[in-house]
């Protein structure tokens, strides 16, 4: 048996595996903690579900200059207070390595950038040969989502095999599929994914939204009421297409 | 072990107490030892509908606070054998109820009763949540009207998330009881039909009780309407109980009954 060496007491007790997790970026356009604190807190109050221990990469690349370590520490503790979990930084690639070392954060600054410096220093771990990343587990709901209930599929798709009642909310970072009538609110791609779509057997929603672009039942009445449709973004327009 | 049934709706004034009285009486008539508990502390109504308001000495809150024993507080129904009523307190509010207190009382009742019928207060707050917390089965009373249906939907959500059964990973059995149904108004498009309500709530239909003068009369006389066996509402509740106990009975009162004399005359002319 090829896998029998797992039983060997001398076998390695760990494994590196490539994985893909959905991460959000907190892009700062000002670095003054006093300015940021009330705005971020207000946003957290609006969408508390997004903030509950959400891992984020703090992006400093839009700032005119990289703030000093003290300010950065203040910013990070502000994030933690609002139950965000900063896991990494995106900063000026020239200084980010030292910065991340002091702050004990992962350095994401070199991603997407042309490999100006050799990427060897950024990756101490030899990555395994690229495997197809396992998709985040899709959330599947089999019972009706009743008025007043909220379902959120973080970092994944959401499949609902029953009705979504008026006054209920179904939210996903990915796509939303509803196989019963959709009478409540459906919000797909809430982390900003503009490729997310909403599929449903009978469109009777109060509101649908993709990445923040929304349509209310008034528009839906005129377009596709009680029809099987998919909703997708075309530019900044939310379109409904018959299935 | 007793089965705990909660009669609930979310919305007020849809017929919870009338239905509780009818269901409790119906179960007792079938020979099951049944107790009706009024959870609407502060707005005591069940005793009026049951016609036992003059015999209330101790109430549910007294029993929870150990100021009276259960036997002192339970009122034996004079008309129906096997039926007991545990009235609510009129002077206290819902804060007088506690999970532990309610559990103790229900456990004691469960030793000697077959069915415990809890008449829930309206709303989705503490009183209503306590009434449904220990339920095995829920009878959701709904009027064929959008706001009532929406509120029933909400309470169904609460049932499947905040009840003890749900917390333990189980489900509370759900039944829909549609009350104040008026087929003529449904035909006129002024009222939701049975099918509409079933479509929205998606739970099994236990019965449809027609809008009936018998209900108001029964309430004012303090006689559960199910005892008015000649009335349409009485028959509808009787059917519902039979279905609840597993009998297969066809739904009645869904369509407009034969036309009255006047409309027949005018109908011919037109």
UniProtKB/TrEMBL annotation, chain A:
Keywords: Cell cycle, Cell division, Septation. NCBIfam families: minC (TIGR01222). GO terms for biological process: cell morphogenesis; division septum assembly; regulation of cell division; regulation of cell septum assembly. Cell division inhibitor that blocks the formation of polar Z ring septums. Rapidly oscillates between the poles of the cell to destabilize FtsZ filaments that have formed before they mature into polar Z rings. Prevents FtsZ polymerization. Residues 14-86 form the Septum formation inhibitor MinC N-terminal domain. Residues 140-236 form the Septum formation inhibitor MinC C-terminal domain. Belongs to the MinC family. Gene3D superfamilies: 2.160.20.70, 3.30.70.260. This is Probable septum site-determining protein MinC. Residues 111-136 are annotated as: Disordered. It holds the Pfam family MinC_C. Interacts with MinD and FtsZ.
TrEMBL record, chain B:
ATP binds at residues 11-18. Keywords: ATP-binding, Cell cycle, Cell division, Nucleotide-binding, Septation. The keyword Oxidoreductase does not apply. The keyword Nucleotide-binding applies. GO terms for biological process: division septum assembly; negative regulation of cell division. GO terms for cellular component: cytoplasmic side of plasma membrane; cytosol. GO terms for molecular function: ATP binding; ATP hydrolysis activity. InterPro entries: CobQ/CobB/MinD/ParA_Nub-bd_dom (IPR002586), MinD (IPR010223), MinD_FleN (IPR025501), P-loop_NTPase (IPR027417), ParA/MinD_ATPase (IPR050625). Residues 5-225 form the CobQ/CobB/MinD/ParA nucleotide binding domain. It holds the Pfam family CbiA. Belongs to the ParA family. MinD subfamily. ATPase required for the correct placement of the division site. Cell division inhibitors MinC and MinD act in concert to form an inhibitor capable of blocking formation of the polar Z ring septums. Rapidly oscillates between the poles of the cell to destabilize FtsZ filaments that have formed before they mature into polar Z rings. Interacts with MinC and FtsZ. This is Septum site-determining protein MinD.
């Amino acid at each position: 048996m090829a896998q029998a060496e797992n039983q060997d007491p001398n076998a390695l007790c760990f494994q590196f595996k490539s994985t893909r997790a959905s991460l959000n970026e907190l892009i700062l356009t000002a670095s003054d903690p006093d300015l940021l604190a009330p705005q971020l807190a207000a946003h957290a109050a609006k969408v508390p579900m997004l903030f509950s221990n959400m891992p984020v990469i703090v992006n400093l690349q839009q700032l005119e200059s990289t703030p000093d370590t003290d300010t950065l520490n203040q910013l990070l503790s502000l994030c933690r207070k609002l139950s965000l979990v900063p896991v990494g930084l995106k900063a000026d690639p020239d200084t980010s390595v030292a910065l991340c070392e002091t702050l004990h954060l992962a350095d994401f600054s070199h991603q997407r950038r042309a490999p100006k410096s050799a990427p060897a220093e950024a990756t101490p771990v030899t990555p395994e040969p690229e495997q197809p990343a396992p998709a985040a587990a899709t959330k599947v709901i089999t019972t009706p989502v009743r008025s007043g209930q909220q379902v959120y599929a973080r970092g994944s798709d959401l499949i609902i095999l029953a009705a979504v009642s008026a006054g209920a909310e179904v939210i996903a970072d990915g796509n939303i599929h509803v196989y019963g009538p959709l009478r409540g609110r459906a919000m797909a791609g809430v982390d900003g994914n503009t490729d997310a779509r909403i599929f449903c057997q009978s469109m009777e929603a109060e509101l649908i939204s993709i990445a923040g672009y929304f349509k209310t039942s008034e528009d839906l009445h005129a377009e596709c009421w009680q029809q099987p449709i998919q909703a997708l973004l075309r530019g900044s327009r939310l379109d409904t297409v018959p299935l | 072990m007793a089965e705990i049934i909660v009669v609930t709706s979310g919305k007020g004034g849809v017929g919870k107490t009338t239905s509780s009285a009818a269901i409790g009486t119906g179960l007792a008539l079938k020979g099951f030892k049944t107790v009706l508990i009024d959870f609407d502390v502060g707005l005591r109504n069940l005793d009026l509908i049951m016609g036992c308001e003059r015999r209330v000495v101790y109430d549910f809150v007294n029993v929870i606070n150990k100021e009276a024993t259960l036997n002192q507080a339970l009122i034996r129904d004079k008309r129906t054998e096997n039926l007991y009523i545990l009235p609510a307190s009129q002077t206290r509010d819902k804060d007088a109820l506690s999970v532990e207190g309610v559990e103790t009382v229900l456990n004691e009742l469960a030793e000697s009763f077959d069915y415990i019928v809890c008449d829930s207060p309206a709303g989705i707050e503490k009183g209503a949540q306590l009434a449904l917390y220990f339920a095995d089965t829920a009878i959701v009373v709904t009027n064929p009207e959008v706001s009532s249906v929406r509120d029933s939907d909400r309470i169904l959500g609460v049932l499947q998330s905040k009840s003890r059964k749900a917390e333990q990973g189980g489900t509370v059995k759900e039944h829909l009881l549609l009350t104040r149904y008026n087929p003529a108004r449904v035909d006129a498009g002024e009222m939701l039909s049975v099918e509409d309500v079933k479509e929205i709530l998606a739970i099994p239909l236990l019965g449809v009780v027609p809008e009936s003068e018998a209900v108001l009369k029964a309430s004012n006389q303090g006689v559960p309407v199910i005892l008015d066996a000649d009335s349409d509402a009485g028959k509808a509740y009787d059917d519902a109980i039979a279905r609840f106990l597993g009998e297969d009975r066809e739904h009645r009162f869904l369509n407009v009954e034969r036309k009255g004399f006047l409309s027949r005359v005018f109908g011919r002319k037109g």
